[in-house]
Amino acid sequence: MVCLNTALSQAKQVYYITLVNNNKSNPRRLFSIFNALLHHSPNESVISEHTPRTLLISLKAKSILSANNFPNLQIPVISTFLNLLSPYSALITESEVSQLLRSSPPTTCSLDPMPSSLLKQCAPALTPALTHIFNSSLASGTFPSLFKQACVKPILKKATLDPSCLSTYCPVSLLPLASKLLELLVFSRVTNFFCTHNLLDPMQSGFRPAHSTETALCRVANDLQTAKAKGRYSVLILLDLSSAFDTVDHSVLMQIPNKSSTPVPLSVGVPQGSVLGPLLFSLYTLSLGDLISSFGLKYHLYADDIQIYLDSPALTADVQTQICNCLLAISSWMNRRHLKLNLTKTELMVFPPKPGPPPPFTITIDGMTINPVNSARCFGVIFDQSLSFSNHINNTAKTCRFFLRNIAKIRPFVSQVTAKTLIHALILSRLDYCNLLLTGLPDSHLSPLQSILNSAARILLLSKEGTCSASIKLSCMVTC
User: Fold this and answer.
1) 111 class by beta-carbon count within 10 Å (0-12 exposed, 13-18 middle, 19+ buried)
2) Contact call for residues 180 and 172 (beta carbons, < 8 A)
3) Phi then psi dihedrals of residue 171, to 5 deg
4) Which residues contact 79 (CB under 8 A, 6 or more apart)?
5) Contact 269, 248 (CB under 8 A)
6) Over the stretch 275-288, which tens digit does the pLDDT of each residue have?
7) CB atoms inside a 10 Å sphere around CB 290
């Protein structure tokens, strides 16, 4: 019996180690494997009872009006670009294509003519032909029609949402590998072009070098804290857009479990999951920043996420009018560009300069009143009125404790290297995310996160609860 238990333990260890090592560079896949190892069954989707046609219509038209219901868009020519060299003047080289093929993930779309792994093995033979196709596409300004096709997979926006409600799904496009390669080549050229000539909005942090959600949040948080230090009130509005990426032509193939619709041409839409989608949206909304600034408000953007804010010595009626006029102008600006401002999900926060509740302050737009909230989530970080981030810290610690308990269950069956991979992917990644916002907070505020680090070190090193905390932290630093 002892030999049998030992053999079972060794088999479990080999199985767990192999699974984790094969997917250590894919956090999403690692998360799914981790849940499977712990016998956590995912929520089953019940959307299969709907027909593909009904599902397609519901997903694409549930939140945004048809393009025919918007006024015709007439955007003036931007003369700034006319004297600049085209971003596509540099030819694509075979070495570029070969490098992209080698570094591309081994994922395969059903529209691919062959598995991505096989395509990568055939790279030496296919690279010249692909390079010729890509250069011809840039030279003619034509995106190959076959590359415009996508399989659209409905994904729950959050695991806690009702899977039977179609509005809780986000249509994610699965694109052919060749299409993604061409998008990556165009993306790098367009990004370099706009960065070189300083054509991007300086307050746009989405998908550009040296910018991230953390830099965006640090800018907003710093402005709010500066106003608070000066004894001024701050008002922050987190705008929500309905179907923000539904603005350009594409053709998609809708899929649900074991079923698919016939190809349906879309009059508007950038596939969510495409490489160029966020960048195209940033260019499409390039003039939004000037509009917001014209009303005396500050702003920061990350693709389709928009934060506008201002500070004032007092929350007067003039401040309300200033914000309302700005939001009305933004709504009108979006309507002209086939976008839609979702006021029901737009959040308002008031930050008082001193501890205590702020005075009553609401905003009314188009007959809809937006009431302030005590806390709001922005890019995964929970802001509170005191800017102490206590809610965010406690929520992060709670999530990490859940994963630590689960890691502890399988820790006896995995090696230290495998356990370190799990802790990095599921614990440290959460502690590291936007932790620059926590700079300067007292140790008492950060103690829940320090407790998580100590527990992670004990689990990693298989140490007992009574082990000296200082030695545990030192060992964890050396090991991790």
Assistant:
1) middle
2) no
3) -80, 110
4) none
5) yes
6) 787 888 888 888 89
7) 9
Domain locations along the chain: 2-42+389-479, 51-202+250-256, 213-248+276-384
Sequence-separated (6 or more) residues with CB below 8 Å from residue 134? 92, 97, 181, 182, 185
**By CB neighbour count within 10 A (0-12 exposed, 13-18 middle, 19+ buried), where does 277 fall?**
buried
User: Are 454 and 436 a contacting pair, CB within 8 Å?
Assistant: no
Question: What residue has token string 């868009």?
Answer: 73
Give the 3-state secondary structure percentages of the chain, helix then strand then coil, rounded to 5: 50, 15, 35
Give the position of tokens 């007067």. Answer: 316
Tokens representing residue 2 in the block: 């002892």
Percent of the chain with pLDDT over 70: 76
Average per-residue pLDDT for the chain: 79
Q: What is the mean pLDDT of residues 327-355?
A: 90
Strands 381-384 and 340-341: unpaired
Pick the CATH number of 213-248+276-384 from 3.40.1360, 1.20.5, 1.10.150, 3.30.70: 3.30.70
At 126, which amino acid appears? L
pLDDT (mean) for 190-198: 83
